[in-house]
Each structure stands twice: as structure tokens, then as C-alpha cells.
Structure to design on (1448 residues):
């Protein structure tokens, strides 16, 4: 048990605060012999990096990852891989107010109450979204593990499917579109709607929530285990552990509440000697075990709590204040959650692939 | 790590199949000195028990729990509590077809594929909702643990808030109503709507999904831990591990995607020297740590996959069949999930209470 | 984490007290498709069973194991296997004195102090050696797992190598002898010495310690993992967790303190294209990883604390008493520890085999 | 589960190789509000540091620890503490031979076989004793945790009690002596004997084994939990996980095999209203739970395998070679194991203190 670790056979432990000297993680359980370069990890970190469009925070971090252990002559040795990312953009500013205020929507009050008044308030400390860089770095290794065991098979991709009231048009879904707009939208038309909408949100100093969808293709049938090692239970924990996430669903998700048994049960036929499903309401998971269909997860990200409008908060001394956040913030923190969701999917699948191989073999 | 265990300091391990000799669980980590009788556990099991109305399966199980260890002279000793429930309603019927068929919507195919063709197909085997009796039994002990450490404080209650397209009217919410109708509805008017609706579903041999809400009152501030021991991450795993659950949300949940930062951030004032929140979009959890407000979780339950309409399935031999389920089944399995959700909430809170006391003290 | 569980991928959880209704365990992580009968488990339980000679306790327990889950048509399904052994020899006697006394050498005082005065004092409760039946039952399944993955390879055997001052003559070691005497001695001459010696110990109402050695042959090279999942670290925990064990050593063990580097380093040559070691001071483990040589573990078992000579003890009320144990007890509890040590070896190896397969493959 | 982590509520994860850029660890579960400075940790690291006498390796490492997270304004925040120690003495030498040789007594062959031929052979890589610096650093924090919860209570000290055939005279035991000689000997006379003896071992290019004893005073009664969370089982795993350790014993240890029940059972009397034991054969642990007496652990350390005498080894290509180690090495690696054993004791006690507080309270 560890509060700051995730996974079992493939397991990572993260550490670090927003404004400390560095953040990082230790990835344990990687099979030996996998070629991994810092550039392989950097590729995914760069996707997550702030400051790439006007819709994400302008904090500029090079986010350069260093590999401190577990690699030899370019290949994994099977021992723990320690990754570190220096915090370089630590502006020396006056934190006086934040130190004594509990901002609504933030974890200020809960950290303060839990940890007996001790709290690294600078930039949110441990509760900062900056920690997600460690997840993305670990996720890069998880992808390598999947590729190592199942060469050129599993594909994991994420997209933003909703910002505020604006959902994408699923009939227009085009994975090729996702990399072409600053929102990871699979639908170009909706991307344009979002652009205009987010500009107005940003200008008004407000923020808005979003929904992310992550899809894993070519996941072999059989990953996951009843009943507390279910693939969907681990995915739910993985996604809910991401900052600002308030809901997780698999396949039809909450819509399953409105479906009849006839509509919900994915029918099966044989195709080329294999089981083929005629629909995927299950999101690729039945009884906690992958079906071989696409594994489909969605999660809801709440709006950034740092906004320019004054909100009622309290102080550590028991006073009442109006809290206003000035300076850089994301109008829609959900955008940056897309690569994080992909990383968590990769981590869960890599762990379950090793667990399945351990118990049953491949 | 264990596929069939849940929790850390308060931890339970379940075992058993629908049509084996018994099901049960081992509950570890209970503090010593807690008075627990079989009747205390039976009380909660009886709430979950099938056969209580025409809206749940007519399988009749006395579901009598036996305490095999961990108790002495009526009090917990601090050692593992082993609970067993005999399976008594094992009708000797012909399982021939089920043995060779993969029913759509069920875990038949995934278990078969994962476990190399070995599968206890009788009544769903390990994937049967019958396993949830073990959760409810463990949950009864978790409630005792909460009461032992925080006397007469934490209250955990569940309700059904949606069946198919019919949601309850939240303004009419009355906890007193929940025990008065066979659906755990907190809204009498909607209960009547559901009754009529479910009768039609049942008569047509179909089934329908539902949404369950579980609320924990008087949870102390400070439970949960960043970042992979977050209270909401553990609740998400707990609820998603329940049979047929396809989505979990905390507080505003998926609606948070449509909220602005102003709407979402629960403002704070001081009241009687304590922090008081003016709303609860967060569902009682910020940064993974309880705020002291009500902890609010909802989960979506898919419709029963066993229906009377033929659905396309395949056979273990690679043939194609039309599957029809005859005999007893729940038209809305979500109803029986209410006491299960309550139990999982109790288990997560008891575990986190012990973990918090371990690291920090109370 | 669980106080009453052991192992990771192959993991068992035990429960039960000496004089409760039953004891048992839940074995999780067994691969599917392994043929296991109750008789397979019973075979090993019978070896451990008390009452087989005048040198072990005369408590007569049939120790009949029931399999409650995880098996279907004679083969493991991959889901948890629940095993239960009823306690049948619960003599209704007056426990009044034991209830209020802390016996020296027993866990009476520590259980009482830890668990706030709550203690099942009947027959030692949870601290009774009776719990080791669960280990032997789980060990029987572990052996099946080893055989399933490595057919007819790994052989695990235990022997008693010392009782009091009398050590076996290692030059006379004969595994065939082990089953022929009531001490599991591999040396017939020493067995005769022990017989006479133990008769005198028994008649004097005293007891004596012993050393057990367990050897696993044909363990593949590569099991174990640096640094906290070392094979020897897990073996040390496994053996030290057995009742009354006070020391564990691997290979040369404590004698390694007196060896020079030249003597200690097992030299290597090539033989038939494979690495062959010229000695086995390492006990088959280097750097926490198996070498392919015999894995050799020894553990010291303290003398039974229940003796007929009065010893100074105290009462729960703070009084001073002289404690005398009357009735059945083992003059040398180490004898019965042999099958238990074998079982723990099998469990550790099965877990590490699955873990190795998970991370690296076979 | 993690191969490179140890502990449950107080848990640390280590990473790093001897000749990589750095080694380090992540310590999770530290209570908040504890004042810890880098100097506090450095103090213990300096004790372990090589190069301090002619009896330990002359590798000179400043071993300067950096705290990268989990601290704020000099106090622990309750979030993970990341510690890093740069490897500065990475002499650029030709590793050609070591790369292709399996040295007897080392983990070269087992790592190579396990990890499919991938191996960081420089300085032993992950199997280097250098990793123990991470244990000592984590142990420094564990000591702070013990002091925080039990102010000025628990004292942990280690000593060397045997080198080769030369044991200390226990009647001469003087803790004050331990810091005065380069061997951590509690007996000045024996220290002088060792000095002469080790000089001869060193000059002959050989090495020798040793026994370390670690004692924890003022451990409260009640730490540890039956049956797989026993304090002694965790101590056994902790000590056996240290490089080169081949045996662990508690209290009388292996001598318990020669004791009668009368000799072994520590008698009890009342003293000042408290239970007082008249001896400590149990080493402070009964039934896996601390008795309140000194917790006494000993472990055997094998001789350094790197010696100047040629020994038979093999090559990665299947050839046979004579291996000679030239250059720096410890004649008795057991000396440096003393601070490491102390650290592991502190870690186990801190973990169990938190676990006990979690389940039962203090």
C-alpha cells in the first residue's frame, strides 16, 4: 500500500510539488530489454506541456525528463526506472495571501485540515496539475511495455468530446483531426465552435468543464480479473485520481441507465473464426475482463477553480475573504487532461497485461 | 495485491460462486472490542435479499450469515472475521445450453477466454450478482468500525434516483420515503411512476438500467490521500467493481463538464467557528480528501442482460445461436445495487478512517 | 496490505482460531485448469496432523478439508479457492485460569495488550499452531501450481536436522529415511538418538527446540527480484511467520560469518553447456535471485512453552502466579513444523514463479 | 506490490545503480509536521559512508543527500519525500572483463539469467551495496517518525558482534564503546583482536564474514500483527533484503533449538504496576507482537565476494575463466552493514507503529 503509487506488477510512484526543486516518479516492473530513450518519453511530455496555445496556462516549463536509473546502454534492465523533471519556472512571487487563504474549489482547506496546518501552498503544492507530468512520463514507458509484449498492436488515443454545453458530433469523428487543433477534438467543426466559445470564457476570466474520451484499440481479450482487480475498476480509479476529474464511465456509461436489455447487450457473431461483437455498449469490458473490442473510457473534468471573479473563501485564521485569482490559468483544464488520460490507460493496460501473463500466461 | 480483495488497513477478500456450496469473505483489520452479532450483519443482508418484491429476482435464498472467526464473547478480537453464507437454492437443472453458449451482455465469453476454457457457468459462477452478498456482509462490519471510532456520527444511505428515462424529482427528496417503496426511491411520486413502468418492462420480458446515489453524512474532514489513495479514486474503484456498473460520479459528476468555474467552486463562509460550504458541487471531496460535507456518489447500473427476447450469441464451439433466457431474473438489477453501494461506501470510509488515523492520528 | 495474507500474485489469506467453529484460508491467483481434489490437499494435511506419534500433541483432529469455491468439475477456475477445516476436538473444559493468566513464552500478554484486553484465550486462539493447517492446505495448492507450470520439476522436501543438542550427521543424509521415522530425520542413527532423548524430555514434562531444513530442487534460475522482493527475503518472512520460529538462514547461513571469501564464493564451471556450481554456500540464491541450485532454508523452532514445570507468570489483574500447563502438548513442536516449512517454501516459489512470468515471461 | 518497495503505511521505494547518475528513494506515509533537515539525514549517511577506515572500501563518495519533495519550511507535509544522492565517484575504467564474466559469489549470473542478458555490470549495478545508502536515508526519516509519535522513547543501536571466528565478550558489552572503534564493537578488547585479524585478512587479499546485532529499546508493547504482519516476520524480511545477508534471528535465535521450555520461557513478575520480564530469550517479540522488552535482531553477513585470489567463474559466452578482483573492496562488508541494520529496524518499527495506530489507536 502506498498513497502515491499506482499499479501492481507494473507500478509507479510519484513525488513532488509544483514549486519544489523537481517532480518525478519511479516506475517498477518494466520488463528488461526494452529500448527507451529520453526522447521517447519527452515526446509524450511535450504533448501535455502547457503554453502551447492560448487555451492552456502560459506557465512555460521545458519539462525536460531525466532518466536516473533502470536503463543500460539504451535498454531497460528490469530494475526501477527513476524519472525526474526539474521545476524551472518557479517565479519568485509573493505567496502571502495564498498562504493564509482557502480558495473555493481548490484542495487548500482539505490539505490544511488533513495535514494539521502544514501545507505547501505554492502553486497548489502536491495538488497541482503539474504532477500529471509524472503520469505522462510513466505512461510513455507503459506504452513501450505494451509494444514490447504485443508488437504494434495496442493503440491508445484520447480526444476531447465535450466543452461546456458543446459536444462533438460523433458521426464526424476523425482521429486524424485530433492532432490538428489545440483541443484534441476529433471533429473539426466542433473545434471551431470551441475556439470561439473558449475565447469568450477566457476573456471573461471564467473557466469551463470538459469531457475526455480515451480509446484503446487491439487490447487482447482476457485482461482484468474478477472482482476487485476488474479492468474497469482499475480504470475508474486511474482516471478519478487525475486532478479535477469528477466522473468516469465505460462504454455506454451513464446512458446505460436508459437502455433496455435488448439495446444494451452487445450481440455476437462469428467472423473469420473469431467472435465479433455487433455493438460496443460494454466499452470493451464484460465482467471486468476485456472483450477484445475497443476499451472506451470517458471522464468529466471540472472547470479550473482559479478564476478572475471574486468568490467567497475563508482564511486559515477563521476569517472570511473574497478570493480572486490573478495571472495565468487554464480556461479549460480538461484540454491538458487528454494526454494524461491516455497515459493512465496505458499504465492500467500494461499492469493488467503483466498480471494476466503472471497468472495465466500469454 | 489480490484480485479478490479490497481495501488496505480495513480489507476484505471475497470468494465463492453462485452455485457452489457457499460464498463468503474474510474481513481483516477490524479494531478489537466492537460488539457485532450475526443479527447485525443479517439486518443488512436482508435488505439486499432477492425475492422481496416482484421487481427483483424470485430466487429465494435465506442468505443466513455464519461468523466463523475473529469474534469472542460477542466482540471483535482484531483478528480476521470470516463470514460464510451457504448457497441453498441450487436448483438442479439442466445447464447444458448455458455451458456451451456465450450470452450477450454476460461475462461468459470473457471468463472463458481468460481462463482457458474453464468456467463455472452455473448461474454466472463467480460473475453472479450473488457475490454482492459478501460485500454487504463486509459493509455491515465497516459500519460498526465507523461507529466504534466516531460514535453515532457517520450515516450512509443509498437511494435509486433513476430508472430508464425516469429520474426522481430532487426537490421532493425524502429519506424517510426510501424504506417505504420497493425501489429505494426518495420520492414517492416517482416511485409510483417506476412501479407502472417496471411492470411493463417485466411483462415484456425486457429489462432496464438505473442510477443509484449513495450519501455519507458527517464524514470528518481529512479522509483520503493524494494522489493514488484519493477518497474519490477509491470510491470509483469500489463502485465500478460492483456487477453491472458502467459509470461512477462524485458530486456534480458529469454535469461538472457544463459548469463554469463560478458555478462549480463551492464557496465557503465561517459558521459557528467552522468552515461551512454554501454548495456541494464537489460531492464532499476536494483534492481527493473529504471536506466534511456530505460525500455523494452516483453510479449507473446497466440493464439485466438476461432477457426473454432472443439475442444473437455464439457457442464455445464457434457456432452462432439465438440466446433466450427463461425463468427468474431482475427487470432492473439496479434496485438490488442500492444496499451494495451503501456497503462499498462504508468499506471505503472505514479503510480511509484507519489509514488516516495511522498516518496522522485522530 | 493485509495482516493475515501472504504472497502477491499467488496469495493466501488465513482466518480462524483454535477453538472457534473452523479455520481456513482463501487462496487467490491460482492459474485455471489445474486438477485438484480434496484428497490432494488432505494428503499434506495428514502429514501435519497431530496425534500420530507420542512425540506430538494428542489432540485428535480429523482435519478434513472442504473446498468451498474456485473449482469446477475438478479443475481450478482461476478464481479464489476457499478452504475450510472444521474444528472438531473442542473439548468443553474450564478455561477460567487461562482466561486470567499470561503464560510465559506464550502470546497471551502481547495479544491482551495489543487488542485492548480482548483475547480468545481458548487453546491460544489465533496464535495457536493450529493455524498452520491453513498454510499446509495452501501449500498443497502451491505445489500444484508449480507442477502445472513446470511439470515434474520442482521437488520440495523438509527434514528435522537438530533437536536440542543433537544434530544429524549430514554425511548420512538420506531423503528416503525421512518418512520412516516420526521425526522426519534424514539420518536413521540420529533418529534413534532423538527417540530416546525426546522420551526423557516428555517424561520430565519439559520440551525442547529444534531446527528444520527445507530444500527445493530444480527451481529454475531467475526467481526473485531485487531488492525488497528478493527470494530469500520472502523466504525469511515466510518461515519467521510460522509459530515459534526464532531464526531463519539460507545456505551457509550464520556459518557464513566464519567463512573467508574464498570459501564462501561458489565457484562455477560449464557442464553440458550449462553453468554448474561447485558448491552451494549461497543456498541457491545470489542477489535475491535463484541460481538454479537447490534452494536451502533452515529455521529454528523454540521449545513448546507449555510445560509441566511451574513458571512465573502474571495475571490480567496485575497479580503474580505460577503457571503450570497440564494435559496434552508437544515435547518438540519443531517436528510438526516440517510440513509447514515445506508448505511455505512451495507458496513462496509459486508466487515468485508467477511474478517472474508476469514481468519477464518464461 | 512492488519489487523495490518496503513497508505499508510507512513505505519507501528505492532506485538506482552503483554507476548511474544517482541513487535515491521515495518515502511515503510520513506524518506531517516533523522537522527534518538534510543534515539530519546526512548524519546517518555519514556513518555508513565508505572510506572512513582502512577496513572498508576506499571508494570516496561524498554521499550528499538532496531532499526533492515532501518538505515545506523545514517540516514534513505528509506527502512523499523524495531523496537523491548523486553518484560522483564513477571512475571511467575499462569494464570489459566484468561485462562478460560471471564472478562467483556475486549476482552477475542471476541478474543476467533473469533479465534476459541485460545487465548493468558497472560496480554491480543494482546489486551494489551502494543501494544501502537509500535505506539509511529512509531510516533517518523513520527515526524522526518514531520520535514524533513517541518523543524521546525508542532508541535503536547496532553493533558488530562477530567477525570470522571472533565473537565479542557479551559480559563486556558497552554501548559507549561502539562509536570509539572502526568496527562498531561494543567490546574494546575484541575490537583490538579484530583489528589485528582484519589487517591480516586485508593483506592476504581475502575477506571474512560477520554478525551484526541491532537492538531497539523502549518499543511499546503491541506492535506487530498476526500472522503475516508479525513484527519478527517483517524484521526477517527487512534484514534478509540487505546485500550479503544470509541469516536472521530474533532473541535467542538458533540457540533456541538447544533450550528447554523452562529455559526459553521468559518469566514475568509485576514491577511498579507493570509487567516485567526476567529474561529476554524472545528478543522482545511473542506471537509476532512486541512485548515492551528490547527488540533484539541479529543477522549474518557473508564475506565480500570480491577477493584477490583467483576463483573459478564462467563467461557470458559459456567459457570458463579464473576471476580475480583487483582494486578497492571491503575485507569485511559486515562492518558497513551496522548502520544499514539500524535503519531497517527503524523503518520496520515506524511502519508498525503507524499500522498499530491505524487499526487500534495509541
Amino acid at each position: 500500500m502506498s498513497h502515491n503509487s499506482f499499479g501492481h506488477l507494473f507500478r509507479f510512484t510519484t513525488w513532488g510539488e509544483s514549486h519544489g526543486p523537481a517532480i518525478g516518479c519511479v516506475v517498477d516492473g518494466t520488463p528488461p530489454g526494452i529500448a527507451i530513450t529520453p526522447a521517447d518519453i519527452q515526446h509524450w511530455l511535450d504533448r501535455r506541456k502547457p503554453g502551447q496555445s492560448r487555451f492552456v496556462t502560459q506557465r512555460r516549463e521545458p519539462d525536460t525528463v531525466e532518466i536516473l536509473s533502470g536503463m543500460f546502454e539504451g535498454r531497460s534492465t528490469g530494475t526501477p526506472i527513476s524519472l525526474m523533471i526539474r521545476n524551472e519556472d518557479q517565479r519568485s512571487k509573493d505567496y502571502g495571501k495564498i498562504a493564509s487563504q482557502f480558495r473555493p474549489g481548490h484542495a487548500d482547506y482539505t490539505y490544511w485540515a488533513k495535514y494539521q496546518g502544514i501545507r505547501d501552498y505554492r502553486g497548489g503544492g502536491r495538488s497541482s496539475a503539474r504532477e500529471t507530468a509524472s503520469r505522462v512520463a510513466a505512461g510513455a514507458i507503459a506504452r513501450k511495455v505494451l509494444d514490447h509484449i504485443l508488437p504494434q498492436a495496442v493503440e491508445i488515443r484520447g480526444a476531447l468530446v465535450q466543452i461546456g454545453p458543446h459536444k462533438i458530433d460523433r458521426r464526424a469523428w476523425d482521429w486524424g483531426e485530433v492532432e490538428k487543433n489545440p483541443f484534441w477534438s476529433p471533429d473539426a467543426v466542433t473545434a471551431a465552435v470551441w475556439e470561439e466559445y473558449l475565447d469568450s470564457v477566457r476573456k471573461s476570466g471564467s473557466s469551463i468543464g470538459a469531457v475526455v474520451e480515451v480509446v484503446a484499440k487491439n487490447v487482447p481479450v482476457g485482461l482484468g480479473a474478477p472482482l476487485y482487480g476488474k479492468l474497469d475498476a482499475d480504470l475508474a480509479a486511474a482516471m478519478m485520481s487525475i486532478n479535477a476529474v469528477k466522473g468516469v464511465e465505460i462504454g455506454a456509461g451513464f446512458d446505460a441507465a436508459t437502455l433496455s436489455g435488448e439495446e444494451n447487450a452487445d450481440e455476437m457473431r462469428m467472423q473469420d473464426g473469431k467472435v465479433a461483437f455487433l455493438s460496443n455498449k460494454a466499452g470493451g469490458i464484460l465482467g471486468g475482463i476485456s472483450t477484445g473490442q475497443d476499451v472506451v473510457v470517458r471522464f468529466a473534468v471540472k472547470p479550473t477553480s482559479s478564476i478572475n471573479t471574486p468568490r467567497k473563501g475563508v482564511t486559515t485564521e477563521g476569517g472570511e475573504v473574497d478570493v480572486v485569482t490573478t495571472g495565468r490559468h487554464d480556461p479549460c483544464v480538461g484540454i491538458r487532461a487528454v494526454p494524461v488520460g491516455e497515459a493512465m490507460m496505458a499504465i492500467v493496460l500494461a499492469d493488467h497485461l503483466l498480471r494476466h501473463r503472471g497468472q495465466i500466461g500469454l
